[in-house]
Amino acid sequence: MRADGFSEYRDEGFLQLLDLQVCAQALGQFWPDRGPQWDALGIEETAPRYFLVEAKANIPEIVSECQAGSQESISLIESSLDRTQIFLGNNSLLPWSKSFYQYANRIAHLYFLREIAKVDAILVFVYFENDYTHIVTSHEAWQGALLLQKKLMGLSRHKLPNFIQEVFIDVKEIEDNRTREFSIQ
Domain spans of the chain? Predict the structure, then answer.
């Protein structure tokens, strides 16, 4: 939100923003401090349903590894990733903390909210297509990269697909529409 300087929240901060402070102690037992920073958060108040949003502008951004410093944090992260993979019935070809770590920790947090905290949560991945400001990535390139990512992570089939959404936003289309709008006026 503009009012808070477009902050990205993590740990107890994201729980407070979603009015889920009651889950803070359980999150502390599941994941160490300095966990994922969420690009956006949302609440559908009538349900209530909670939305966690992660956005990527290009394919190199999906490759990452765990940067935790202490052995205690690394052990807790590995344990929670293992718990998540066991729940999912996962057969990963790569260690989750070494290859697609950001994606893995987002899936782990979805698992935490849905299965441990018993909260109706949805994880939304937003992928920007044709972003000319950095690395232009087509829809087809995203589809291929994400298919490979899921295959390598053992996520071709799992128990949470109905709670993970992928949204593709074509930056070029938005810019073209904006240009047409200005030329019409």
Answer: 2-184
41 within 8 A of 121, measured Cβ to Cβ: no
26: its two tokens: 């359980």
How far is the C-alpha of 106 from the C-alpha of 88, rounded, in Å? 14
| Tokens representing residue 8 in the block | 């990205």
Find tokens 């593709």 and name the residue. Answer: 168
**Within 13 Å, how many C-alpha atoms sit on residue 125's CB side?**
23
DSSP symbols for 91-160: --SS-TTTSBHHHHHHHHHHHIIIIIS---EEEEEEEEES-TTS----HHHHHHHHHHHHHHTT-SS-S-
Task: With CA atoms as reference, report the closest residue to 173 among 165, 185, 164, 181.
Answer: 181
* Rounded Cα gap, residues 159 and 173, in angstroms: 34
Global pTM value:
0.89
pLDDT tens track for 126-181: 999 998 877 899 999 999 999 999 999 999 888 899 999 999 999 988 766 655 55
| Partner residues linked to 127 by β-bridges | 56, 168
Q: Which residues on adjacent β-strands are paired with residue 169?
A: 128
Chain center to CA of 12: 17
Could you tell me if 119 and 112 are in contact, meaning their C-beta atoms sit under 8 angstroms apart?
Answer: no
